[in-house]
TrEMBL record:
SMART domains: HTH_MERR. InterPro entries: DNA-bd_dom_put_sf (IPR009061), MerR-type_HTH_dom (IPR000551), MerR_fam (IPR047057). Transmembrane segments: none annotated. Residues 6-75 form the HTH merR-type domain. Gene3D superfamilies: 1.10.1660.10. It comes from the Bacteria. GO terms for molecular function: DNA binding; DNA-binding transcription factor activity. Keywords: DNA-binding. This is DNA-binding transcriptional MerR regulator. The keyword Ligase does not apply. The lineage of its organism: Bacteria, Bacillati, Actinomycetota, Actinomycetes, Streptosporangiales. It comes from Actinomadura viridis.
């Protein structure tokens, strides 16, 4: 019967495709001990040993270490338990490889220096919690001691970076830029200035502000299309129309005092870095709708308001 047949180590090598050296190694390690020996001391193996060897080869090819293989063979662990553990490990390895791939593509795209590549890799491989903690620390610092508008505070704290397991180079790029931005002292000082101003100068409800943003961008875009510079006389009707719209929304009278306050509000509240903050979050998180670039329109309005008031 086949079950009674014993094979030499050479026979086993030919049947399994493994080298004699590898089989001898597993045999010496006690993983696949010989079934018997010839009178001359040569090792002999039966079909059970051959099946054991096939299992060892499969587990090793899947990356299972020899100690764990031994435990499986000795029934201390089941194949299912080992498979589950190694599947989790492979998931982590795959995620790491995807991050590395994204970093390398981003580095190639940006032409980064070795120092920048190291920083990008360090920031990209942070855990979700570590990434969120960077933003939380930034918000805690700028909000400390400031009685800011709760709605605006909630909006800021709701925006947390969630880099996907398989990020694109653009998402890695955006995360690195965001991490650098929130650690910039000048940016933190500007956001704190905005929050302090809002604490003493409450903003209008969100829907009213949305309407004002739309009116401003529409009127300024039209003026720019006509080639009107902020200091040109033709800019005055645009300034008057927009100042009147803001005054109406705030329940104020459009006079010199109101325009002074409006200019101050515009200058403090308009910052390209703050707008970039939300655009970077949108890229990182893969939001379908990304915040539009509006600050240039308000920069035009600020310059025109200063020139014609």
């Amino acid at each position: 019967m086949d079950g009674d047949i014993l094979y030499t180590i050479g026979d086993l090598a030919r049947r399994t495709g493994l080298s004699v050296r590898t089989i001898r190694f597993y045999s010496d390690a006690g993983v696949v001990p010989p079934t018997d020996r010839t009178d001359a001391g040569y090792r002999l193996y039966d079909l059970t040993a051959m099946a054991r060897l096939e299992l060892v080869r499969t587990l090793r090819e899947l990356g299972v270490d020899l100690t764990t293989v031994q435990r499986v063979l000795e029934r201390e662990l089941t194949v299912a338990e080992v498979a589950a553990t190694h599947a989790e490990a492979l998931d982590r390895q795959i995620q790491t490889l995807r991050l590395r791939r994204a970093v390398m593509r981003a580095v190639a795209k940006r032409g980064s220096s070795p120092e920048e590549m190291e920083l990008m890799h360090k920031l990209a491989k942070l855990s979700d919690e570590e990434r969120k903690q960077i933003i939380t620390d930034f918000l805690d610092e700028v909000y400390e001691g400031v009685d800011a508008d709760p709605e605006f505070a909630a909006k800021l704290r709701s925006g947390m970076p969630e880099l996907p397991d398989d990020p694109s180079p653009e998402q890695v790029d955006a995360w690195v830029e965001l991490a650098e931005l929130v650690q910039d002292a000048g940016f933190k000082a500007r956001i704190r200035q905005m929050l302090e101003y809002q604490a003493t100068h409450p903003v209008k409800p969100s829907n009213a502000m949305i309407d004002l943003v739309e009116v401003t961008s529409t009127r300024v875009r039209a003026a720019q299309a006509e080639g009107i510079a902020p200091e040109d006389p033709e800019a005055r009707p645009v300034v008057d129309a927009l100042a009147a719209a803001f005054a109406a929304a705030y329940g104020e009278t459009d006079d010199a005092d109101f325009r002074t306050v409006l200019l101050e509000r515009m200058e403090i509240g308009n910052d390209r870095r703050a707008e970039r903050y939300w655009q970077l979050l949108a890229t990182i998180n893969g939001w379908d709708t990304k915040p539009p670039t509006l600050t240039p329109y308000f920069e035009w309005f600020i310059a025109a308001l200063r020139a014609h008031s």
